[in-house]
Design a protein that fits this description.
The protein contains 26 helices and ten strands. By secondary structure, it is an alpha/beta fold. The protein has two domains: 388 residues, Na+/H+ antiporter like fold (Up-down Bundle), CATH 1.20.1530.20; 193 residues, NAD(P)-binding Rossmann-like Domain (Rossmann fold, 3-Layer(aba) Sandwich), CATH 3.40.50. Helix 4 runs antiparallel to helix 17.
Length: 597
């Protein structure tokens, strides 16, 4: 490292964070902006050379970063989420992967005339998709749960499998080809799988026992997990090179599915760390590109990308989904979405450097060709997948449901009323006691930090179109509003004030930070909770020509608090302090009525 290392790393992290924020604002995968920045500061303006900055630590840093990213992704894989679709995922990461590999290699050789050895290595590198690009895309596309779960599982599981396949081909190349080389390569692959799976299973089981028996204080969970992931990755690679990715993936899946092992806090920490590492890696790898290498590829390289997108992936899905219960529209969407990510970029950079040093012809084309596929798949699929999902009818249904933040008595009772009226509800609890009570009452409840990556990954947003911030804490409510106002729309986020003494303070806050204020003037969490605890009930009243909204008000007096109005078309409107609703005959009004006694 040189004397400019400290400011360079600081600027790199800051720019990466800025790219992530821009991606969040425009709702596109962050990789687009990270690659753009990397290309600009690297080959275009030559302002940044990551290999010169990190020196001999450059590739070890990339390897350890990829290990952390894969572990974080695998830690979110629960077998119960993929019940009934296991065979499809298994086929996609085995038979389907081989189909993609062979077609990609064949197309590359026919179009570019590169040697078969380099073509097969390129095909192996580009079979991987990856969670770094799949998960942000799924948040934007919002396909049905079956499609979403399949793509998420494929993206995480195929990374170590694809990396192992690339190692197999690489071992074959450096051994000089022939039957002996093939035998050596197959032996190396079997050793990678055996070492990786055994090491991952042992480490995952032993660490799971440690967590289950509370042998570690909670504040050490994150740091010990990080240390164990890095240590097991390094130890596995020492036993057999390139087996570490298999180890960390198996370890994460084992922990995620082990009974009575709470990994929520660990996952939250790893998500933040993964975002940081992904941001740095994409910029650094893109900065190493050379413009001349793209010129060498020329326009014919686009045919390779088209073959991967329109031939290899569709055939992969056709073969992998045979005999499954997936509908044809679901299969069509699976055939369209397969963006390449960080593992493909990292492996291509590593193997290209080794092969170029060994004077293997065509090796210099590996990196630009891989990045062409990465950029092409991400750009094309991220901008069209939502449109295609809607056209095929496999996107989420019309979002009439509610995300309710706060599982106190107010949130629980309003949730029950909405569910009784036929509306989907997802409750978010910030405290363990509220979460337990809500689950015992049969309400769909998520316990955790709503602003975390884990929440976006695990919350079921199918049919959710509005947010009700009903926590007893204004800070929690406003944070939820800021998090989801862009995704749901500023007119679809609502907040209930916490208590009377805070009303004026809250009203002075800009509307974009607090959303629309719920219910009638003066309504607060404290007042609604007090009414419910004193015997008040939330009920739906059907309005008729003879019993209109004014009659309802007269029956219950000023203590009546109208909450929602449902028109004859089953569309729901929310009563707020800013806008009045005039429900007529045929409407239903959900309101909080006081205890009649």
């Amino acid at each position: 490292m040189n004397e400019f290392a400290l400011p360079a790393i600081a600027i790199l992290i800051a720019i990466g964070a800025l790219c992530q924020w821009v991606a969040w604002r425009v709702r596109l995968p962050a990789i687009i902006f990270l690659l753009l920045v990397g290309i600009l500061v690297g080959p275009v303006f030559t302002l940044f050379d990551p290999q010169q900055l990190f020196g001999d630590l450059f590739f070890p840093f990339i390897s350890l970063s990829v290990a952390i990213i894969l572990f974080e992704g695998s830690l979110s894989l629960k077998f119960k989420e993929i019940l009934g679709l296991q065979r499809v995922v298994r086929n996609m990461v085995s038979i389907g992967m081989l189909v993609t590999w062979l077609i990609t290699a064949l197309a590359t050789h026919l179009v570019l005339g590169i040697s078969w050895q380099i073509c097969f290595l390129f095909g192996a590198i580009t079979v991987v998709t990856g969670p770094t690009v799949i998960i942000p895309m799924l948040r934007t596309v919002r396909p049905k749960a079956s499609v979403s779960n399949i793509l998420r599982w494929e993206g995480i599981v195929i990374d170590p499998i694809g990396a192992s396949l690339a190692v197999l081909v690489y071992e074959f190349i450096i051994a000089g080809g022939g039957h002996i080389a093939l035998g050596n390569a197959l032996m190396a692959l079997s050793q990678i799988v055996i070492v990786g799976m055994l090491m991952g299973a042992v480490c995952g089981y032993l660490f799971g026992l440690t967590l289950r028996r509370h042998l570690l204080p909670e504040y050490l969970h994150n740091i010990v997990t990080l240390g164990l992931v890095l240590l097991s990755f390094a130890a596995s690679n020492m036993l057999h090179e390139e087996s570490g990715l298999v180890t960390v993936t198996v370890m994460g899946i084992w922990l995620a599915n082990m009974k009575d092992v709470d990994t929520e806090e660990i996952l939250n920490f790893k998500e933040s760390l993964s975002i940081l590492l992904i941001s740095m890696l994409f910029i650094m790898l893109a900065a190493r590109l050379e413009i001349d290498s793209f010129k060498t590829l020329g326009w014919p390289a686009l045919w390779v990308f088209l073959a991967i997108q329109f031939l290899a992936r569709p055939l992969n899905i056709v073969v992998s989904t045979m005999g499954s219960k997936l509908t044809w529209p679901e299969r069509h969407l699976l055939a369209w979405i397969a963006p390449r990510g960080i593992v493909a970029a990292a492996i291509s950079a590593l193997f290209a450097l080794r092969l170029v040093d060994g004077n293997f012809e065509g090796a210099e084309m590996l990196v630009p060709l891989t990045f062409l596929v990465i950029i092409g798949t991400v750009l094309l699929q991220s901008t069209t997948a939502r449109i295609i999902a809607l056209w095929l009818g496999v996107a989420e249904p019309e979002p009439k449901g509610f995300l309710i933040v706060g599982a106190g008595i107010v949130g629980r009772e309003i949730s029950k009323a909405l569910i009784s009226s036929g509306f989907r509800v997802q409750l978010v609890a910030t405290s363990w006691d509220d979460a337990t009570t809500a689950k015992l009452e049969g309400l769909p409840t998520y316990h955790g930090n709503l602003m975390s990556e884990h929440a976006e990954r695990h919350l079921d947003f199918v049919g959710i179109g509005r947010l009700l911030a009903l926590s007893s804490y204004d800070g929690v409510n406003m944070a939820a509003i800021l998090q989801y106002r862009l995704e749901l729309g500023k007119n679809n986020v609502y907040m209930l004030q916490s208590k009377a003494g805070e009303v004026e303070k809250v009203q002075q806050i800009p509307a974009y930070r607090r959303g629309q204020l719920l219910f009638s003037k003066g309504a607060t969490y404290a007042s609604l909770a007090a009414m419910l605890k004193s015997g008040g009930v939330i009920k739906a009243t059907k309005l008729t020509e003879s019993f209109n909204f004014e009659n309802l008000r007269e029956v219950h007096g000023d203590d009546l608090i109208p909450l929602f109005a449902i028109n004859p078309r089953e569309n729901i409107q929310v009563f707020t302090q800013e806008h009045s609703i005039e429900p007529g005959a045929g409407w239903s009004v959900i309101s909080l009525v006081p205890n009649p006694s």
